[in-house]
Design a protein that fits this description.
- By secondary structure, the chain is mostly beta strands.
- Helix content is 0%, strand content 54%.
- It has no helices and eleven strands.
Length: 123
């Protein structure tokens, strides 16, 4: 069973920066995509950013130009650099990984989630 462990959350003032880390117990090369989601109180979990196995990245419009997702495959670690943080970025941030298993005629997706790390941005 793959485990994802996030770290790096905390309290920061608006305009500040944080870097989140997510260490995978399994080889990152096994995943077809990894990414970051967030969930604010009373809201649904939403995609923040993701990176494919070939390094293609995607960002939610709300974080484009401020957040950067990177990875260190050798260290099995995913990062999210968050700059110019805003109060509306306050949420629990979750690391996510997806791999595909099964024969080609019956492949299915398997999702893994970390426990989450709290990010709080004060105004």
């Amino acid at each position: 069973q793959v485990q994802l462990v996030e770290s790096g959350g905390g309290l920061v003032q608006a305009g500040g920066s944080l870097r989140l880390s997510c260490v995978s117990s399994g080889r990152m090369s096994r995943f077809n995509t990894m990414g970051w989601y967030r969930q604010a109180p009373g809201e649904q979990r939403e995609l923040v950013s993701k990176i494919s196995s070939v390094g293609a990245t995607h960002y939610a419009d709300a974080v484009k130009g401020r957040f950067t997702v990177t990875r260190d495959i050798a260290e099995n670690t995913l990062y999210l650099q968050m700059n110019n943080l805003k109060p509306e970025d306050t949420a629990v941030y979750y690391c996510h990984a997806q791999r595909q298993i099964g024969p080609i005629e019956a492949v299915r997706d398997v999702d893994y989630w970390g426990q989450g790390t709290q990010v709080t941005v004060s105004s």
